[in-house]
Amino acid sequence: MSGYTIPAGTPVFTENYVASQLEENFTNAHTFLPERWLKSEEQRDDWTLHPYASLPFSFGPRMCLGRRMAELEVWILLVKLLSKYKIEYHYEDIGFVGKLANAPDKPARFRFIELKPES
Question: Is 61 annotated as a binding residue?
Answer without folding.
Answer: no
